[in-house]
Amino acid sequence: MLSPFSLACSELKGNRKFVYSFILNLAIGLVGLIVLDQYKRLTSTEVSIKSKELMGADFLVVSRLEVPKSTQKRVENIIPETKQKTIKQTFFTMVDFGEDLHLTQISVVEENYPLYGNFIFENKTFDFSRIHNEKVVVLSSEIREQFQMSVGDIIELGESEFLVGGFIEEEPTGGVNAVSFAPKIYMSKKHLKETELVTRGSTSRYHYLYRCVSCELGKSEISQMKKVLDNPSTKILGHQSANEQTSRLYKYLSDYLSLCSLVALILSGVGLIYIFHSYLLRQRISLGVLKSLGADYYFCLKYLVWQVVILGLIGTTLSVLVSMLCFMVIRTIGGIGGLVVPGVFHLSGSFLAILLGVILSLAWCMPLITSFLSEKSSSLFQSETLKSPKKRISSFTLSYIPLFLIVTALAIWQSNSWVVGSVFIAVSALLFVFLYCCGVIASRLIELLAEYVNGPLRWSLLSLSRKRSRFIATLISLTFSVSFINLIPQIRQNILSEVKSKGGISKDLPSYFLFDMQKEDYDDLSKMANQHQLSMGVFAPMIQGRLLKIRDIGVENIENEEFSREGQSASWARNRTYNFSYYSQLKKSEKIIEGEWFQGVYSGSGDIEISLERRFAKRLGVHVGDSLQFLIMDKKINVVITSIRHIQWTSFDPNFFVVFQPGVLEGFPSQYLGSIKGTSDSEKVFRKNFYKRFVGGALLDVKKVVSRLIALVTQLEKIILAVGLLCLLSGFAVLIAIAYSKIYGDMKQMQLSKCIGMSFRQIRMQQIFEFGITGLLAVMVGSMSSILISFGISRIMIRNIFSVELQLLVFLSASVVFIAIFIGWWVSGRFLKQSKNANHLFD
Amino acid sequence: MIKLTNISKSYHNPEKIQILENINLEVKKGDVCSIMGKSGSGKSTLLSLFAGLDVPSAGEITFHQKNYRSMNEAQMTDFRGKHIGIVFQSFYLMPHLTALENCMLPLEIFGIDGAKDRAFEMLKAVELDHRASHFPSQMSGGEQQRVAIARAIIHNPKLLLADEPSGNLDEKTGLLVMDLLFKVCEQHETALILVTHNKELGDRCSLKYILSDKNLERV
After folding, report:
1. A83-136 tens-digit pLDDT
2. CA B136 to CA B168: how far, in whole Å?
3. Which residue among A35, A285, A515, A837 is least enclosed by CB atoms within 10 Å?
4. Which residues between 779 and 838 in chain A have a beta carbon less than 8 angstroms from any beta carbon of chain B?
5. Residues B144-165: tens digit of each pLDDT
6. How many CB atoms lie within 10 A of CB A155?
7. B168 touches chain A (CB under 8 A)
8. Residue A434, Cα to own-chain centre: how many angstroms?
């Protein structure tokens, strides 16, 4: 007995062009998603395996103050398997490298450091223990590159001199330090005192690293440890935290890139719907014959479903193989823009991808299948269905709801964020509707324009406008990809324009960022700045504390999900150490968006007012009028939120999430942060003088930091652009699929045109015009859409100034039009070269 | 006017299949010629040769002293557009063009002025001027075929090839269409070569041929 499966296989064997089109479209759409999913899995796996080495411990205690020995004992008692302990102290200071002064991170370690992992030095034979036995230090390799230092040079650290013993190639992290802009120096604890680097008021971090036989720190152990801590600013971290810290940047990046690759997937879906629809039209007679021979609805359903499943399996398998190839290439070239591929390709993720590919293929094609099968058998022998157009469109649209839900779930899962995923889908859906409306309007205008032209141009305009659904489908798929490929550089441009002016870095940015300063330093600092044609910017106090209660509920009693980024952010916001400040006037980079600024200095009675940063308040889930309780230096302080501020973070001024009303925190010990603006002819001299006068303070060159940030963004942008190009590739794959379908569908018309005297050149010109006009419309609408969307993102979400990257926009637009014309020319040429084709009209 | 001399046609698929052998035929201006034969006898192949859409394996085709072999594909297309009209069994109107636009297409191809007015006149002649703005999907089979006839004759071709023009129509409509076809050919003094299965239609033609065993025999 003939089974639907065997019939499906034989049908596919006889329709190879359709099979190749379907598989290729699906494969291109899935490749981006699979590659990024693999990368995320491998990074996560790799970091999990190496987390102890990354952290340098099984768990660690981090504090800005030295943890008393009694507290250390209480913590250690909770994990009795603790075998080894080492203490690392880190702080920032200015170091004179001969050529220039530079802010540097000093790591002071004990003899048994590191507990896990090893240093790898450029000079492989260097023995790290020399830093304890001799007055030797080791430096990060960027110091050698930037300041031309060498092994054997002498370096001054505070009041003492040290020999440069070696340069670090790789180091165990030994603590919490995700991204640092300062180069590092490692020295022994034995020599710290004589340097006199650690003075009153300077800020250090103390890392207490523990190694044990087999200790697993779960939530309950961490919770027990937190209870025995005296200081709210002290943190306990298990080695699993290294995963989050070190991979956070790439995690966010890959989440957003996954969304971009989802666009490629959606586009391939559009192409698949079109290809499958054309295929089903050609299958009408076969289906009618099957039914007339006694095949029931379910037989026909299985027959078509099997075809989709087989194609989905083959297409996804192909995409997995291509992804493996991409992986190999990226590994061979050593990664792209810092995105190094760890490990080997994991097949476990591939099975999920294959399942997803099959499910998505079915989701895209099932509405078409059910629509065709629901037609009366007799209508299958006619060229049009008997259903009224209205009923068909509405029921057809409804049948795509499952696909919409699947893609929405995919977007949320890939972005790890309810908000980002939902906004992405909403924007995509709106874009589809917008493009559909543009397509309808364009087809009407084109039809009107046809009256005023002649020859191939007129015929192409009539063909485009009268075959509306095909025109709109082509336009949507191409415009969608053009929109996204243009959107990505626009967003980058808007972010970078905040910090970059035409001549270089923005002149509004401060030149230096100061920290570890004291209140009494202000006057001398001001005079020194003026002497070097610089001026003081912000100079604000900073006090640390922790959040205890939100609206009278203790933060430890507030639970939320930690799957989504929103949940993770909320949890982080509640449990972190806070930096408070107080001042009476709003800074230039701030703007009140809700409530009112402080009503003068606190009088000693009534509510204490605070102002919160906008996004921070959202993470905490608080509003104007809500109460909070903070712990600052053993003192509990109750406050009321009286305003919410928007901060322009890219001003690089010292900004604070939480600002107190003046008159509350003045009695607490604080350090001061500040900024210096302007440019000087004698900046090196200024830095040297600063270092000599303010030994405990630190200067961060903002221009250098921003340059490095721009370089980092530019590097990452290459990856973002690569994924954007994948979207465009998907769009073009759809265009080629539609082109072949179109040409195939137009075959008889082209043969007829030949019969009635249309020349080869005229027929080809008509096709070129059709593709060229569609391409031109796509870039016009796509560019407009991308500018509108990036405007919305800039003004509403990021709240930046808006600007357009015109050069890239023009280049991409011209490329799209050119490629569309080329596709029309190439595909039509292939079909027209055979003059025998016209004979078939007589069959 | 058009003369076939010792025409043979064979295909290789992969063995050699002889379709036509030593066909000789001459059709003069105003002649109405029918070609009948069983399915697979080579009628469509013969029509393709007349139209210059295929090349004979042997023999010569001349049309007004112009040998088909002397023309390349572009020249043949141009020649066909100016001197030959074709009516198909399945009508083959451009589905996205109205009746008027379909009809004026042959004139538009050669950039002839007044194509729209001339097309409207032709539609009037086939009694379809009131359907000028309708698409093929909005017309019956008979109406579509009448538009096809109007399109085939609009440029005053010297030769009209009709491949079973009433084959997809009911008897009554088919007769109406055929009457129209004969009428317009007579009015424009266009030679007509009609391929048909219908003996009655064949009998209406002044020249009758039967294609059988790869040969053409006059009846």
Report:
1. 788 999 998 887 888 767 777 889 999 998 888 878 888 888 889 999 999 999
2. 15
3. A285
4. 835-836, 838
5. 999 999 999 999 999 999 988 8
6. 21
7. no
8. 26
